Amino acid sequence: MDVTFETQKGEKFTIEIGYFDTVLEIKEKIQKYREIPISNQTLIFNGKILEDNGDVSSCVILHNSYMHLIVANHLEKPKSPEKLKIMNEDFHSFSKKIRLFLKLPISNSQHHQRLSIEVDLCDSVAQLKENLYQIEGFPKRPLTLYVKGIIELQDNRHLREYELTDGSEIDILIKPSSVPTPSGMTNTISNTSAKKLKVIVLSKCETKKLIVDVNPMDRVQVLRNELEKLQQKVNFQLPPEGYFFIYNQNVMEEKETFHWHNVRQGDTIDIFNGSVTGGS
């Protein structure tokens, strides 16, 4: 199987290793093909320094895994565990944070919900999935991530391997909870299981507050629909000439979700008279 290595200088290369190789044997292959002495090699995988007596199985190294290789100068003295830890931290110090936009299919629709999330390019795909599961309202079900619609992101690889940039889009495919997903079947998010957010709505033509329950994964358009339903029930006056929503001093995009706008529990959304024109 193939494993990709990257040095602290950003140099990348791939070497074929055996399923039963030890870490020492991997270093021997690096020495053979890259002429880097074993004594100068430190291998880091999933944030951990690999010991020579470890092996592929115990380290859970898989095909197409991505590993960091710290190459010491041949004049340097061997590093203590404390020094190696600092080197590991230094290696990750040049990591870069970017914001990704994730697209989720909407049930019985050709449209998508969009989420945004800040990630570190040194994170693994598995770490990204774990971060998604922490989002309030996100379904706790197996999911598959795709970049450019066709390239599947593998759990054991790092985000930087996919050449993602700030603003890159990721497609999310969520598997049903009970039955496997045949190829090509559309996956959707179940809004019924999501935890609700309580948001405070204030209108400039009203003095009272209105508390509305919304789903974090709902589009902001849902709030407009809900307010129009409540208008008669609770005697809450909406601007007759039209209105738009403001959150954190920004106009809300009604086609986007509350999570996309980073709306939190108990936050306030203001209603302003008029309409918004132009923009992207």
From TrEMBL:
GO terms for molecular function: polyubiquitin modification-dependent protein binding; proteasome binding; ubiquitin binding. Residues 1-71, 98-175 form the Ubiquitin-like domain. Signal peptide: none annotated. GO terms for cellular component: cytosol; nucleoplasm. SUPFAM superfamilies: Ubiquitin-like. One of its GO terms (biological process) is proteasome-mediated ubiquitin-dependent protein catabolic process. It comes from the Eukaryota. Pfam families: ubiquitin. PROSITE patterns: UBIQUITIN_1, UBIQUITIN_2. This is Ubiquitin-like domain-containing protein.
